[in-house]
């Protein structure tokens, strides 16, 4: 994506069609050196803008904004303060399940009174040092969520899942969703894209083996009924109130479910 942006900014510079360049060099085409300088300046401005926008905290946020698609894992990162408002003390032991889980777990660990773990649904070959360290300590695990999770019942107060379920067929979802609810004691939060949404490269991991299938609200509700999961209306309400207060609108569907007891 980065290179696509650079290319579009180079074309007008080379042809001298940009008003700016025309003004500075009315007769001659700009030298290649000037083009390169402008190119670098443009790139710096874009990068600076993105990092300013995201607070420079998570590179996953920057990546997602660059390619213009939606990643619900980036949404989790943005919505953590609201989840804290909705869940309060239930944020004490959080499991995040989804791609880029290392960045979410790192962010959660910075919250006061929150312990965090992560499940990365597919093998990572580009994990950074921090991520490898967390995997080494067992804080983050790679686990295929089509199969039972390697945790005891109610191991976590809250389980948050983003982007991971969109890749599973109903046959697997029938087992995976109750399995996610099994390891939670207070709640299960599921973030999923809206149908027709463009996925960001972060979310569209080819390793999932199939493209994301974004399901409608009614589809999800039917699945929750089939798997005997109920919405936690109190949590939903608290979350929506907190979101309204900050005028935050999520680009993902968010479901607040009660755990299976
Ligand atoms: C999922 O489980 C429900 C309830 O047991 C069943 O009715 C439905 O056919 C299952 N769906 C699939 C795709 O296995
Ligand atoms: C619903 O969520 C709230 C947090 O907003 C939590 O305190 C409560 O225990 C949950 N209720 C159930 C039945 O899981």
Automatic annotation (TrEMBL):
Keyword Transmembrane helix annotated: yes
Keyword set, alphabetical order: Membrane, Transmembrane, Transmembrane helix
InterPro entries given in the database record: CGR2/3 (IPR044689), SAM-dependent_MTases_sf (IPR029063)
Organism listed in the record: Dorcoceras hygrometricum
Example GO BP: pectin metabolic process
One MF term in the entry's GO annotations: methyltransferase activity
Matches recorded under PANTHER family: OS01G0144000 PROTEIN, S-ADENOSYL-L-METHIONINE-DEPENDENT METHYLTRANSFERASE-RELATED
Parts of the chain that traverse the membrane: 33-51
Name this polypeptide is given: Uncharacterized protein
Keyword Cell membrane: no
């Amino acid at each position: 994506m980065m290179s696509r942006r650079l290319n579009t900014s180079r074309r007008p510079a080379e042809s001298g069609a940009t008003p700016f360049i025309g003004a500075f060099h009315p007769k001659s085409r700009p030298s290649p050196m000037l083009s390169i300088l402008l190119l670098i300046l443009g790139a710096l401005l874009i990068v600076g803008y993105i990092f300013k926008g995201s607070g420079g905290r998570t590179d996953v946020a920057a990546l997602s904004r660059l390619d213009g698609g939606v990643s619900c894992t980036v949404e989790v990162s943005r919505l953590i303060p609201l989840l804290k408002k909705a869940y309060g003390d239930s944020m004490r032991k959080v499991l995040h399940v989804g791609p880029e889980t290392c960045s979410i777990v790192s962010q959660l660990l910075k919250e006061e009174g929150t312990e965090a773990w992560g499940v990365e649904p597919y093998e990572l070959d580009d994990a950074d040092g921090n991520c490898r360290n967390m995997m080494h300590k067992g804080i983050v695990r790679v686990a295929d969520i089509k199969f039972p999770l390697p945790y005891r019942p109610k191991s976590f107060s809250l389980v948050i899942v983003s982007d991971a379920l969109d890749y599973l067929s109903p046959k697997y979802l029938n087992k995976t969703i109750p399995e996610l609810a099994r390891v939670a004691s207070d709640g299960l939060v599921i973030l999923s894209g809206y149908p027709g949404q463009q996925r960001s490269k972060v979310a569209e991991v080819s390793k999932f083996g199939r493209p994301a299938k974004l399901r409608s609200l009614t589809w999800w509700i039917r699945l929750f009924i089939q798997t005997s999961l109920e919405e936690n209306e109190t949590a939903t309400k608290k979350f929506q109130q907190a979101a309204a207060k900050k005028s935050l609108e999520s680009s993902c569907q968010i479901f607040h479910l009660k755990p299976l007891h």
